[in-house]
Structure formats: C-alpha cells, structure tokens
Amino acid sequence: MIPAPFNVRYGNGTMMDLMDDANATCSSAQDFHNAYINLFKTIVMCLAGAQIVKEIYQFYTRRWAYLSLENLLEIFIYTAAIMTMYDFSPCSEHSAIRLNWQWMLATLGTFLAWINLLLLIRKLPRFGIFVLMFVDNRPEFSTIPMSIVKTLVMTIGEMEYNGIFHGTVDVHEESLFSKAIAFPVFFLFCVLMTILLMNLLVGLAVDDIKSVQEKAELKRLSMQVDLVLQVERSMSFWRKKFTRSRLSFYPNRITKWKRFRRLFGANQLDDYSDVYDQQAAEEESSGLKRELGMQRELINHLQTNVDYLYEKQVKFQDMLESIMEKLETISSDSRKMLANSSSAEAAQKLEKSSSAEAVPPASRDATHLLTTDQDFKMADDD
Asked: Which InterPro entries match (predicted)?
C-alpha cells in the first residue's frame, strides 16, 4: 500500500511535509524552506510562553480555584504549540519538517484551540447564550445507554465516509495519514455538527427551548461577573496605581486640536451635529416638561379629591359626636325619671302602710264589710 503523498523519508524515522512528491527526502525538502519560517516559529513560541507565564500567575493568585477545564485546556494548547514549533532533529531545523507525533499534536491542539475559542465566546453578550446552550448537559445524555439511544433517534443523515477516509485515485489508495487522530476528530465533528448543532437550531426555530435560554442567560451573567472579579484580583496593583479618584471635564473648552481643526473648517460638521443634538435635547426637554405639567395637574386633582374627602370625614365625625351627646342626654334623663318614679312608688307604699296602721280594728272590719257588700252588689248587677 502506497502511503499518502505528503510523506518524507529521513533516516529510520518518517517525517511529514505537505509536498507533492511522495519520494522526496530531507535534503530535497530543504529547497522548500522559507527564511520567514524561523521568525514565525519564534513568534509562536514567545506568545505561547507568555500565555503559560500568565496562567502560572493566575494559579498563584487564585490557588485551587484556578483548576478548571478551561484553564487546563489553555495550558495544553500552549504546550502543544511550543512542542510543535520546537525542532527535535536537524532535519526539522533546516527544513521545518515536523515529526509524526508533532503533526498529530498540532492537529489536536488546533482542534482544542477552536473549542477554547467557543469557551471564550461564552462571556460575550451577543453570542454567549448560544454557546452556553450548545454545551449544556441535557438529562437525556446523562448516561451512556441513554446517550446512545438518543443519538440513534436524533441521527437522520450520513457523512461521506468513503470520500474522507479512502482515496479515489489508483496511485494512492490511502488519502489519510495518522488514523489514530483522524477517527476521533471525525467522530466529534459528526456528533457536534450533525446532531447537536442542527437539533439545537431546530429547537430555537420552534421556540421550544425557552427554559434553556433563560438558564444560559443566567450562566452567562455569572461568568461575566466571575471574569470581572478575576481581572480585578489579577490587576489589583495596577488599579491602585493608575486609578484616578477625580476627573475634571470641560465640555466647552476649546483645545489646541479644535483650533487646528477650525483652521481647515473641519469643525463645521461638528457644529452642525452639535446644533442637531441641541435641538433634539430641547425637544426632549420640552416633552419632559409637558409630561411633568400633566403629572402636576393630575397630582393637584388628586389633592383636591383628598381635601374634599377629608372635609366630609370631619363633618361625619362632628355628626357622630353630636348624636353621641344627644344619646347620653336622653339616657341621663331616663335614669332620672326612673329614679323619681321609683321614689314616688316607695312613698305611696309608705303612706298606705302608715294609714293602714292608723285605722282601728272596728273601722277596718266595717270597711271590709262595706267592701264586701259593694262586691256583691257589683256581682248582682252583672
């Protein structure tokens, strides 16, 4: 089986370079070496080293809170960049050809760099909500059996497997080098693009993912707050040194730059824009004044109604007090009348008892007889 056309044979090992000649050697590959490649390699290694120093400083300031998937991913990407750019053999130094494992490491580092870019986009206000929805862990994918069943249900298409992993020409039957790294990357591409992303877009189209959007929005806000706190903690010294406690602003001051612009008439447009802004501000202020006048009239009307209700309440209270006074007067008079009537009855009883005691027994008998005769007569008349 003939290998892929970008192989270059060097010694006992096999190195790779993107060249058309399948039988090229390291000596012939030096003709393709560009003088700017060493400069670019130095720039990449310097930038990756600076990022690693930054990550070390973050670990020093944040301690164990630094250990997260995003930070570990960044460290791996920077390390992979340095390992890919470093020359491990004389052939790599003179021809910029990388070793086999360097190419695989560069492939994995590039893929993870794009994933890291997605993780960084999460903190942006416009695109962060979609990234958070994309990486959200759904309950139907919580276990491996459920994930397999859900993936089979969601999968409705097929990727062109033969066109990617098998060549279409007779000379080179294999168009793919390093299947160990190609198959996992292809599998992740199929899962991310054809399954998750397309179904996520369909869910957004039918407005069936409102709760996921709200959760992603809250997560994005929390990540923004965490980012601000990290920046404040990492740059505390610079903030204390360069923070200005007072800022003076003079909007009508004519600076030297404005005088220079006026010499060439460049401030005319600014003057027109200032006039337009002033007119817009006046219109807005007049509208606010009208609204304030309407609010003031409404408040006055409400105050009048409140005063009227207060007067009614005072009158009603006076009426109740007069009624209570009259009721108290009537009750006192009735008590006096009852007291007088009871005293009169007691006096009459005393008079009767005293008169009864003063009459002799004979007269009492006569009176009794007379009363009895009168009763008989009244009965006969009846």
From this structure: Ion_trans_dom, TRP_cation_channel
